[in-house]
Amino acid sequence: MERALASMRASVRACAGSGALDAVSDGENAAERNFGDGETGTATGDLRGRTYVVTGTETSAIAAACARRLRDAGARVVCACVDANEARARVDGDKGDGRDEDATTANTAHERELRASGALVTMYCDVERLETIERFAREFCAKAWALDGVLNAASTTMEEFSLTADGIERHFAVNHLAHFKLTSLLMDELVRTAAASGREGRVVYLTSNLHHFSFRIRQGTPKPSRGIDFANINSDFGYSPLNAYGQSKLANVLHAWSLSERLAKSGARVRCVAATPGLTELELDRSLSFPGGSLISAPLKYVMINTLEEAVVTPLYCLTAPTIPPGTYFNNCVPVKASLPGRDPRLAARLWEFSEELCDAGAVKDAEGSD
């Protein structure tokens, strides 16, 4: 068992020595500066002068830890959140469950200087309400800040069926549609910053390996396939928390690819990818919540669960590496194959159209509610 655990840990640390981590800051070797022996790759180089938007910091330990690492590397981090106090407490590591090792330790004068240069800003944004996403985007753009990257990390995980105030199934609304809307509204800022700085802009969708467990749909053939159940998105018909979660995470993978294709045609220097933090304890517990599931989850936790330090490796790499292949699905800091539906361009095109329709419907609903 110990050998299996060590092997799993080594696979994450192997990011350090792989070609995928050649440089996280210009002109330096990431394996030497950011992913040294005995570390798990959570350093990000010198990010002074950069600005990142991060969602989910008040609810997600991974989002909060990523925000903390970005801030401690000198970046301005804008937390799009509902509860500013909760977001700050989690990013600062005051909540206990959101604290990774060495979260507050600055071992060198350079590290202390970087941390002092960083800033944490909270701005109101409720990812369950499309109208507040629009408001957040307007207020952010009005500040005329540069925008180097967006980490779409807000998520709800395997909950029972419910609808948001906009009438959209909660997993699909929070995990996908909110980020579809937010990224669209901030894209002009990302494009402008990339053009001015000469660096690639970055959009990272925090997805999951559980995108393989989306709904089974019959698509005019006798054999069922996994995909997105557009006809029943907002219905409890055949609802499964695991499938609803998997469907929303599949949407992240598909949208990263679709958006990358559109940006490539425009010539914009913005890269969009989907990144999995690996299997986390919350995902495992909820996916095995049936009677007897704990008998399966207990040994799996010992050999398969990523620690918080390990979980932030891939999203931070995707946000800060000088260049990455666009539209890809990252696991352990390298592009890997997504599920078969996650590589279906027709499904990706349908998802884009469907998402636009839902966003437009939400805008109409908000306008009617304000009359």
Describe the protein in words.
The protein has 13 helices and 10 strands. The model is unreliable at about 1-40 and about 95-105 (pLDDT under 50). The chain has one domain (about 1-10, about 40-370): Rossmann fold (3-Layer(aba) Sandwich). Helix 7 (about 170-195) links the parallel strand 4 and strand 5 (about 200-205). The strands form 2 sheets. It has an 8-stranded mixed β-sheet with strand order 3-2-1-4-5-8-9-10, sandwiched between helices. It has helices spanning about 1-15, 30-35, 60-70, 85-90, 110-115, 130-140, 170-195, 240-265, 280-285, 295-305, 310, 315-320, 345-370, and strands at about 50-55, 75-80, 120-125, 150, 200-205, 215, 225, 270-275, 330, 335. The protein is an alpha/beta fold and about 375 residues long.
Indicate the topology.
Elements: H1 2-13, H2 30-33, E1 51-55, H3 61-72, E2 76-81, H4 84-91, H5 109-117, E3 119-124, H6 130-142, E4 149-152, H7 170-197, E5 201-206, E6 215-217, E7 225-227, H8 241-266, E8 270-276, H9 281-287, H10 293-304, H11 308-311, H12 313-320, E9 329-331, E10 334-336, H13 345-369
Parallel strand pairs: 1-2, 1-4, 2-3, 4-5, 5-8, 8-9
Antiparallel strand pairs: 6-7, 9-10
CATH topology: Rossmann fold
Largest sheet, in brief, is: 8 strands, mixed
Strand content: 5-15%
**CATH class call:** Alpha Beta
Number of helices: 13
Rg over CA atoms, rounded to whole Å, is: 20 Å
Q: Roughly how much helix do the residues carry, as a percent range?
A: 40-55%
Structural domains: how many = 1
Q: Give the uncertain stretches in residue-range form.
A: 1-42, 96-104
Strand neighbour order, sheet with most strands: 3-2-1-4-5-8-9-10
